[in-house]
Task: inverse folding
């Protein structure tokens, strides 16, 4: 595991060397603060629209950071030929995949913490209400979902030729799943298209990890049992995607 | 550092910064070219955001107005709302109070989810709003203050900016501002904004009269405003549809109640008889008229001036 975490450490350092996080954080902060600066009917306590907007931006920013970070890991190592000295350490290909995964996952977790810290400060200072456990659940579930997304992107980076195509395809897939996923079965039944129903049970469902509406509407805590099931669900898909990544990477010709 | 950052990021950053600056500074600087001073500009009711939306979207902005009004209904239900794949109710609950209808926060008619279809559906419901509630009746947890209904106001304001001719936006906003948030002055401001954009509208005048009667307790002003509302209703081209009948019913019944409370019984009977022509329940109004007649007969006769 030492090798795995050594590789992960390098990936985390890459997060603060690259500018993606800073740019997305500044954009999120600027848009949120501009929205919060608007006063409607001179009511200073109106906050839900700010929460709604900020959480949406956090979700989109977290996806972009995670996918952009994970998509370039293995292709860049191949392109710069640093994969050869890395594998000569000796480090197995499985350890490379795991190291890259944990690095990207932890990096996205660190970014997520900064985003949520900003969100909590901005909304808490306005509504004077601090539902810490609800925030913990939201961060935990979103982070678990980002783990699943990291594994999916790593698998995509083995299949597709360039990081740019991996990023585009995974982003489109994720947006589609996010928007259509919960309704696929009903569409399949109504349009008599069994393929949709099959897809409904195969795709990873992102609605288990999206607590935005609950946070905005102050719905309180999700039962911890349901959270545990969602974590197990994500762990199963993450494991599956990592296995597929390893299977693809194991036989991959590394010379470009 | 400058070399390492992609020019696209710089472009995105500059665009966001420009937009942010514009949203902050344009509203305060809008009057510069249009009025001698800011006070006069605001008195004339010119809204900077209205101009900005008009400039950016033209008449297309009206398309967004309805969506923003629906967003107010979404917030009113704390996010428990049908998606585009679910069946929608025609009448929005957020408008029920302003239209004089009773709220149905505990009804099951809005349970669009139905029983879970499978384990994914069942598990997913733990992570989303899953109960029909209203923000002015306890909200999601049942113990949210009624004043939390202020959260719908940004959407109503945006809806009014997008489509200044959407009357429902003003009446609903004014209803919550005056009844729940106890801010009749803000409600009046919002209604006046609506009247500036729709000077002939009888629904807005009716809402204004209700504000004068129920919040300011100014009977004379309320009477004048409602009578003006009735005149505007009479001048309508189409008076036979249900919406127009309901408006007339509200105006005349309220005028009848006002005159009855003021002791002007013949006037009260006159208005209630007018209301009977459009009301879905004329029998109930007849009972009120009979009651007034009894009150009239029980009243002592007015003293006559006699010369000793």
Result:
């Amino acid at each position: 595991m030492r090798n795995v975490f050594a590789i992960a450490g390098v990936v985390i350092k890459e997060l603060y060397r690259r500018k993606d996080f800073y740019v997305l954080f500044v954009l999120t902060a600027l848009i949120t603060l501009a929205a919060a600066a608007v006063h409607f009917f001179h009511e200073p306590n109106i906050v839900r629209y700010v929460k709604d907007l900020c959480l949406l931006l956090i979700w989109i920013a977290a996806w972009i950071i995670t996918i952009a970070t994970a998509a370039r890991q293995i292709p860049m190592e191949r392109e710069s030929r640093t994969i050869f000295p890395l594998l000569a350490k000796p480090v197995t290909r499985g350890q490379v995949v795991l190291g890259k995964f944990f690095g990207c996952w932890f990096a996205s977790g660190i970014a997520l913490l900064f985003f949520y810290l900003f969100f909590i400060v901005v909304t808490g200072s306005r509504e004077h209400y601090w539902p810490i456990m609800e925030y913990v659940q939201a961060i935990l579930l979103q982070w678990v979902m980002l783990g699943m997304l990291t594994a999916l992107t790593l698998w995509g980076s083995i299949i597709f030729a360039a990081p740019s195509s991996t990023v585009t395809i995974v982003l489109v897939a994720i947006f589609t799943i996010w928007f259509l996923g919960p309704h696929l079965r009903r569409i399949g039944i109504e349009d008599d298209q069994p393929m949709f129903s099959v897809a409904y049970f195969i795709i990873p469902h992102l609605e288990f990890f999206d607590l935005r509406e609950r946070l905005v509407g102050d719905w309180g805590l999700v039962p911890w049992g349901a959270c545990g099931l969602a974590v197990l669900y994500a762990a199963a898909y993450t494991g599956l995607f990592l296995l597929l990544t390893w299977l693809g990477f194991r036989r991959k010709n590394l010379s470009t | 550092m400058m070399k390492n950052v992609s020019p696209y990021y710089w472009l995105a950053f500059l665009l966001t910064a420009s937009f942010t600056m514009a949203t902050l500074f344009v509203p305060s600087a809008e009057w510069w070219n249009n009025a001698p001073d800011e006070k006069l500009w605001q008195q004339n009711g010119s809204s900077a955001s209205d101009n900005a939306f008009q400039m950016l979207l033209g008449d297309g902005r009206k398309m967004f107005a309805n969506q923003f009004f629906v967003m107010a209904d979404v917030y009113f239900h704390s996010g428990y709302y049908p998606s585009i794949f679910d069946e929608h109710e025609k009448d929005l609950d957020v408008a029920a109070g302003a239209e004089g209808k009773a709220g149905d926060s505990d009804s099951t008619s809005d349970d669009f989810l139905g029983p879970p279809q499978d384990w994914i559906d069942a598990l997913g419901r733990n992570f989303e709003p899953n109960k029909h509630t209203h923000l002015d009746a306890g909200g999601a947890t049942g113990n949210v203050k009624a004043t939390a209904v202020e959260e719908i106001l940004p959407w109503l304001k945006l809806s009014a900016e997008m489509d200044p001719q959407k009357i429902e936006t003003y009446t609903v906003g004014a209803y919550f501002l005056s009844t729940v948030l106890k801010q009749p002055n803000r409600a009046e401001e919002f209604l006046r904004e609506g009247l500036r954009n729709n000077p002939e509208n009888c629904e807005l005048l009716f809402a204004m009269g209700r504000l004068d009667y129920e919040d300011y307790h100014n009977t004379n002003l309320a009477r004048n405003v409602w009578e003006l509302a009735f005149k505007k209703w009479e001048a309508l081209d189409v008076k036979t549809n249900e919406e127009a009948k309901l408006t007339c019913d509200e105006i005349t019944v309220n005028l009848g109640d006002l005159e009855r409370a003021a002791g002007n019984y013949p006037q009260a009977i006159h208005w209630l008889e007018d209301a009977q022509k459009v009301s879905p329940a004329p029998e109930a109004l007849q009972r009120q008229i009979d009651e007034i007649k009894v009150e009239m007969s029980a009243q002592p006769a007015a003293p006559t001036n006699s010369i000793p």
